[in-house]
Amino acid sequence: MMTKEEEFLKRLQAMFQVEAEEHVNVLSSGLIELEKNSTNTPSPELIETIFREAHSLKGAARSVNRKDIESICQALETLFAKLKEGQINFSADQFDLIHKSLDTLSTMISGPGNTSVRDGRESVREILSITDHTKKKTKQQATTGMKDSGETKNHAQPGNGVLFKSKAAHAKHKPRESANAALPVKRKSAPAPSADEKPLQMETVRIQTSKLDPLFLQAEQMIQSKIASVQRTVELKSIGSFVGAWRTELRKREARRPGDNELQVKEIIHWTNEQLDETERNIVTVTDAIENDQRSLGRMIDDHVESMKNILMLPVSTIIEVFPRLVRDLSRSQGKEVEFITHGKEIEVDKRILEELKDPLIHLLRNCIDHGIRKPARRLEIKKPSRGTITLTFMVLDGRNLEIRISDDGAGINVAGVISAAVKAGLVSKETVEKMNTQESLDLIFKSGITTSSMITDISGRGLGLAIVREKVENLGGKVFVESQPGRGTTFRLVLPLALSTVRGVLVKTAEHFFMIPTGYVERALRVRSEEIKTVENRETLVIDQGVIWIIKLCDVLGLRDRTKALPPQKGKTPSSPHFFHIVVLTHGTHRIGFTVDEIIDEHQILVKPLGRQLNNVRNISGAAVLGSGSVVPVIHVSDLMKSALDSISIKRSTTNKIQAERKVYKVLVTDDSITSRTLIKNILEIAGYDVMTAVDGVDAVTKALVGAFDLIVSDVDMPRMNGFELTAKIRKEKRLSEVPVVLVTALESKEDREHGIDVGANAYIVKSSFDQSTLLEVIKKLL
After folding, report:
1. Where do runs of H (alpha helix) occur along 1-116?
2. Residue 161 gets which letter from DSSP?
3. Given its phi and psi angles, is residue 611 left (phi above 0), alpha (psi -120 to 50 degrees) or beta?
4. Most exposed: 116, 538, 726, 757, by fewest CB within 10 Å?
5. How far apart are CA 407 and CA 410, in angstroms?
6. How many CA atoms lie within 13 A of 698 on its CB side?
7. Is the Cβ–Cβ distance between 702 and 730 less than 8 Å?
């Protein structure tokens, strides 16, 4: 057990971590702004903010005895002081060093064991080197100035003035967002917390005191509700006592009755009626009071829920503060220039939604940089500014929904390339493509496995990013739209609720089971005659609003047995008697499907409860709702349901081709001069069912490839006699080998090496530092 002093220190460390992370975020954002305006005179206010943040972080580190953090902050403070006094201007490489030191600070803040003392000292040396370099430069310029004109001149050079311009030195620099950025950062994991430390590592959130005031008021009102509920209990007990006394008195009167005296009977009846009237009055009084209490409590609960939702509302800035740095690092790593602009970051959104939005937004930003913005030289060729622009805008719609727009002024989406990739992946047929309009063709980019990238790498080209975006947004009850114009750019538009709350649901019955369908996805509920449902191409369809929709039984999609099929026909029914179907029309994204059910019962306000970890992956069900009657009803996961329905009614590939594809054993040639690496990859592929042959270098690989019939080649790059680049180029020149996919697996991870791989014709480039067998197998499966 920890002592009180140790517990206090742990709490102090936790508070420091929250505060320090805020300081580093402000420093990072300030540097980005400073770098944007490096060609102009820096804003004194901006420089002052950066200087104060470094000073404040230094003081906070000193208070918790974090000398490692304090030393870096001291060096930064010295550097920013010189910037404040106009004695220094940063070049692009120097900005890189400062950002690198902030990365080190972030790692240190996350835990004392995450970095070494050497890392901290290296950061201090790098920061001080900027100051030393500036001093030497100033002395040289001063000496030159005195020789030329006899007076000292200040020739301190400003920054290069190009935002996010690629530098060769930056190839070694890693972005801060290790999970999502282009070049992942590998950090030491912090030691596992002890049992005493775990209660102290709780997530915290800062709340404005103005948001707490309504909660205190509601708490006081709840005391009144508590008093009222006690009073109602007393009143109901009084009625119960009155009924008990009435029963006792009635028995006494009956016992005193000597015979069937009509007068006595009338007297008892009269007295009983009086007691009934009194009881009725008491019950009415208590019922009215309970109804008033119910209305009051209902308003109070609604107000309380709104207040709690308000507490959970955080500004958008809390998740996008790292985006400028992410855009900067990713664009520089690709040799591109990008200006990142944000609007509406003060808008408040439910914290739970914000947490789920971060990854989709990062995917979209990466997509804009990877596929949208071109390199400066290419942009200048087509009469565009060398610097591209990405704009992220947040706005509120109807007071209830949030709209997010991510726009770039890049090349736009290659629709023909998307269609070709979709057909090649077998996701749509050529006949289906011919019937699609432009928007439907654009929407294909959200399907898993669609990519127009010319090469698969460890960070892009697998066609998963946009599919993940749509899935995440739709799970939050939102929708994703895309607009694109060739040569002018692309805009992704996300519309989703500002807050998560209780929802309304339609209660339906199918195959003797009850289910709740969220009302937000229900376009309409209707009853139609059997003759209105037509069979087209072996599918049941219905015409609604001059459009045709598919009809499918809900029980079939859910995998439930429809027992009504076995029931005998009802008496009195004749073949000419009309038969009706109950149909719930659901919409999700661009899809619209009608589901037949046995009965559409009613609409209810529901609170969806999760199923728990054990049932977390139950398909088509998102949770459960408890009705007023106490019954527990599964809640339909509409996104899953629509996918299941589409799978069941979509056109399948030819079974013959499918069986042939499944039976085929692919032959793979593995080339590596290291026997260890060669054996490892060979074993991975053989376990996965591939027929594998190996080669010891590029020359050996070419010889064997010309003799054997290989479906794919996996090769290292750094090999004697003929390296992987030369091997790939040689294969592409051989007519019978030119179409064989080549996967390069190498330790070379620089941007130049990746681009060289593309130039010589490799189909995929996997860096060994991020290699795992699932990545390799996934890439090979996609290429075959």
Report:
1. 4-36, 44-63, 67-84, 92-110
2. -
3. alpha
4. 538
5. 9
6. 18
7. yes
For helices 92-110 and 4-36, the axis angle rounded to 10 degrees is 160
Angle at Cα 280 formed by Cα 277 and Cα 286, nearest 5°? 145
**H or E stretch including 480?**
strand 479-485
CB 540 within 8 A of CB 554: no
Q: What angle do CA 471, 476, 482 make, to 5 degrees?
A: 55
Q: pLDDT, tens digit, for every residue of 332-376?
A: 888 899 999 999 989 988 888 888 888 889 889 988 998 889 999
End-to-end CA distance of the chain: 58
Residue 68: how many CA atoms within 13 Å on its side-chain side? 21
pLDDT at 13 over 70: yes
**CA dist., res. 76 & res. 25, Å (int):** 15
Q: Is 17:64 a contact under the CB 8 Å cutoff?
A: no
**Backbone phi and psi for residue 360, each to the nearest 5 degrees, phi listed first:** -60, -40
Contact 67, 58 (CB under 8 A): no
HSE, side-chain direction, 13 A CA sphere, residue 453 = 28
Hey, how many other C-beta atoms are within 10 angstroms of the C-beta on 615? 11
Residues 586 and 595: their CA atoms lie apart, in Å, by 8
Three-class DSSP category at 441: helix
Give the strand order in the sheet containing 503-510. 599-606, 503-510, 513-518, 632-636, 621-626
- pLDDT (tens digit per residue) in 741-769: 999 988 887 778 888 888 888 888 888 76
Q: Looking only at Cα atoms, what is the longest distance across the chain?
A: 141
For residue 550, list its beta bridge partners. Answer: 541, 593
CB-facing half-sphere around the CA of 230: CA atoms within 13 A: 6
